[in-house]
Amino acid sequence: MQIHTLDLNFQNLSHAIAAYLIEGPEGYLLIETGPMSTLPALQSRLAEHGLSPGDIGDVVVTHIHLDHAGAAGWWAQHGARVYVHPMGAPHLIEPERLWQSATRIYGEAMESLWGSILPAPAEQVIPVRDGQQITAAGVTLRAIDTPGHAGHHHTYRLGDIGFTGDAAGVRVPGSDWVSLPAPPPEFNRELWWKTLDRLEAEKFAAIYPTHYGRVEDVAYQLGEIRGMIEDASTFVRARMEGGMERDDLVNAYVGWNRERALSRGMAADDFARYEAANPLFMSVDGLMRYWRKRAEAEARRSA
Ligand SMILES: [Zn+2]
Q: Ligand 1 centre from 123 Cα, in Å?
């Protein structure tokens, strides 16, 4: 069995979004599809392995965000079975709401970032429960429910390897900085803590976050994202309580992240890859929404 990291060259940047090609004893399996905008790049990477789309019968997505699964409907229309979290499955079959939800985040930039989205034929979509095993291409993957970044998020275990999607954070090769993707509306700090407990208990020998590539210091990365969830949450809450407006908070958050990143020795060029893989304004919106919802829930309880 071999794992190939396919660089989708998102926005002409290397090492921002990956798809993983698993070469098993009985064929090939794709983990993550990337968005429709990078489908030509994905097809070129597959061609470098002598493969055409018809050679890929099985596609697994960690979750349905467009940078991970935007092209899943295309693959399903071309005959692949698409394995997905049960909460994500309906949105691959009828992607209008998924597209609208992303439009609330990305506005005018939707098409240039993500291209488009195609509906997956229902019979090609296979919902996968927590703990369920998938056998394809002669290898077996086990689904691990890993909410926090999104409610519809699985990590997939293959041997002693974990495909963590966004659940272990975002990290670009050559950097020690782990960045937090906290998109609205689903970022949930408490659920993510439990997810990190689960991921730690798996004792993976290596993980493959979608952004980007193989990571061998797994305990370090999981510790960093745990710390980042806390530090970023605290940063945003303190400024909300101080009455800071959203746009000012975005500026403050970008500056704070850049400083942390550069203090970890990141090259200034790499910051662009991070921002492409994980726009920081998006996390500000996700974190602000999380705290507002929490305050509303507390107000309801004390009413
Ligand atoms: Zn995501």
A: 25
Is residue 32 within 8 A of residue 20, CB to CB? The reply is: yes
Confidence of residue 274 (pLDDT cuts 50, 70, 90): confident
Q: 182: CA distance to ligand 1 center in Å? A: 8
Residues 88-97 pLDDT 10s: 999 999 999 9
What are 92's two structure tokens?
Answer: 């691959």
Residue 236 counted as domain residue: no
Parent domain of 101: 2-226
Instruction: Write the CATH number for 161.
Output: 3.60.15.10
Taking the centre of ligand 1 as the mean of its atom positions, its distance from the CA of residue 111, in whole angstroms, is 18
Residue 16: inside a domain: yes
Angstrom distances, CA of residue 42 to CA of 35, 213, 286:
10, 15, 29
Does residue 288 form part of some domain?
no
Q: Is 237 exposed, middle or buried (0-12, 13-18, 19+ CB in 10 A)?
A: middle
Percent of the chain residues topping a pLDDT of 90: 91
H/E segment holding residue 5: strand 2-7
Distance CA 59, CA 3 (A): 14
Closest by CA to 291, choosing from 283, 281, 303, is 283
8 A C-beta contact, residue 126 and residue 136: no
**Number of domains within the chain:** 1
Does 64 fall in a domain?
yes
**How much distance in Å is there from the Cα of 60 to the middle of ligand 1?**
14
